[in-house]
Design a protein that fits this description.
elongated, 8-stranded parallel beta barrel, Elongation Factor Tu (Ef-tu), domain 3, 29% helix, 15 helices
Length: 494
């Protein structure tokens, strides 16, 4: 089975590939249902091409899954030469109007039917196959039994299904809220009119601004709006507002990592992880967990080895898990109270090893700084020297410490995202290493321009990592929050 991961921007695309995805799906500005994701634009196609070359054999899918209005068609045709710059292997669409345009202009790209088309039966799959679709991303309400029946009836079409993450339960006229909350399918004519129930609208952050139309739109598109049904206290359904649509997400997350054999037996060809709006940390760890689980299923590694990575899913922000509609509709209606956030913040991405030339330049700067400090100190009055030393004794953080060469240490590019200091509990994670706890004294944060050891770094600081740990490319640095309270959802580092 193919493992398909989300990529909301270039950075996430890299980590999706590096942490084990066979393919990744992206969105382009204005033509994707995740308009608040970074998405891809301008000259980023150059970086995407570089990544495709760096990871040969990895596929790139592009979501064009909106319902197209006439002006959307016009805009797409106007920008079509730009889209041709991307090395796209497949387009994910729900609107049949765009199909002949894609077939004409992208003859080598596959057509994948979006889950938004709600395809859940064999006859529909036959029809879409006849229209030129290579793959159907099945509607969320399809059971594993139904999927097996579809595969048996239409063996020559690929089937893709969501395996992890948030589940859209309401978008446009296609709504699963009734099925999810009452077991009565609106798509089958048994709608319980859930949308007319008594809901409270909540905003995760206190808004102290005067609510103008502009502010209201900003709040609506922030991803911080929630609704709470009056009889389900503490169960919050996130809302995402686009330019011309509103999407409501389930309060539960799909998690099928313990049931991959059942999905394989059902004839599913591709496992899709939800999350173009999620963090780099989420993309990396979830992709890695499913990669290892699939490798165990295929006999490449033991289940015991895979389980170490699977258990790390608990260290990614998530809601209570469910198997959705795969086994029974009752599973999708499992009640949850609150949410589980991660005990970790992603605090830095670790890049390539610093070249010997660059490393020597940093050491040269450190020597120069050391000499300047010594010259200044030597020129001071004895009493001033005494005062300076006393100040350093009482306030050691004020002392400027130039870097010195450590035998068998390595130097890496370091992109700070959140605060790190030497009291932080830091861990290194990588595609094939669950985590390494970094011991004090075995790593340093260094200003690359001055060669001075930093006491702490935060987002925006120039920094390199100097450490005795030999780290593979794609390593991430996370910091454990010792004050973490399970169920308390933060906005930082996500």
């Amino acid at each position: 089975m193919e493992l398909l991961s989300p990529a909301g921007n270039v950075e996430k695309l890299y980590y999706a590939y590096a942490y084990g995805a066979d393919a990744a799906y992206i969105g382009l500005k204005r033509f994707s249902l995740r308009v608040k994701a970074d998405n891809f634009y301008e000259d980023e196609y150059k970086k995407v091409i570089e990544l495709k070359n760096q990871f040969p054999g990895k596929k790139l899918h592009c979501a064009l899954n909106i319902c197209f209005h006439n002006n959307d068609i016009d805009n797409f045709l106007r920008d079509i030469d730009y889209f041709k710059s991307y090395p796209i292997d497949a387009f994910i669409v729900q609107d049949l109007g765009i199909v002949p345009i894609i077939q004409k202009n992208f003859p080598n790209a596959e057509l994948h039917l979006s889950t938004q088309a709600s395809c859940i039966n064999r006859e529909a799959c036959k029809m879409y196959k006849s229209l030129g679709f290579n793959r159907v991303v099945l509607g969320r309400e399809a059971s594993l039994k139904e999927i097996r029946e579809i595969k048996d009836a239409v063996p020559d079409i690929e089937l893709e299904a969501f395996v992890h993450g948030a589940m859209c339960i309401a978008y446009s006229g296609r709504c699963l809220m009734s099925s999810l909350l009452t077991g009565r399918s609106a798509q089958s004519g048994f709608c319980s009119h859930t949308c007319r129930w008594d809901f409270n609208l909540k905003y995760k952050n206190d808004c102290k601004k005067i609510i103008t139309p502009e502010i209201a739109k900003e709040i609506a598109q922030s991803g911080n709006l929630l609704i709470e049904e009056h009889s389900r206290k503490g169960e919050y359904f996130p809302i995402y507002e686009g330019d011309d649509f509103t999407a409501i997400l389930s309060s539960k997350d799909i998690r099928m990592i313990e049931h991959l054999k059942d999905m394989k037996d059902a004839g599913i060809d591709s496992l899709k992880i939800e999350g173009r709006m999620k963090s780099t940390y989420y993309v990396a760890l979830v992709t890695r967990a499913y990669r290892k689980a699939l490798d165990a299923l295929d006999g490449k590694i033991s289940y015991e080895e895979a389980k170490l990575f699977i258990d790390e899913l608990e260290n990614v922000s998530h809601r209570e898990s469910t198997t959705g509609f795969y086994y029974s509709r009752a599973d999708a209606d499992k009640t949850t109270q609150g949410a589980s956030d991660s005990a970790y913040d992603l605090s830095a991405t670790i890049g390539s090893k610093i070249s010997e030339e660059k490393k020597q330049s940093i050491f040269d700067s450190a020597i120069k700084m050391k000499n300047q400090i010594q010259q200044e100190f030597d020129s001071m009055h004895p009493k001033a020297k005494e005062a300076r030393l006393k100040d350093f004794e009482n306030n050691p953080d004020r002392k400027i410490v130039p870097l010195e060469i450590q035998k068998d240490w390595f130097m890496y590019e370091y992109e700070p995202l959140n605060m790190v200091d030497y009291n932080s509990h830091i861990e290194f994670i990588s595609p094939d290493v669950v985590s390494i706890v970094a011991e004090k004294g075995k790593w340093l944060l260094v200003d690359p321009e001055t060669g001075v050891i930093r006491n702490w770094v935060c987002n925006g600081h120039k920094c390199v990592l100097y450490t005795e740990y030999d780290l593979p490319k794609g390593t991430l640095l996370r910091v454990k929050d010792e004050a973490y309270v399970k169920g308390y959802v933060r906005d930082t580092g996500r």
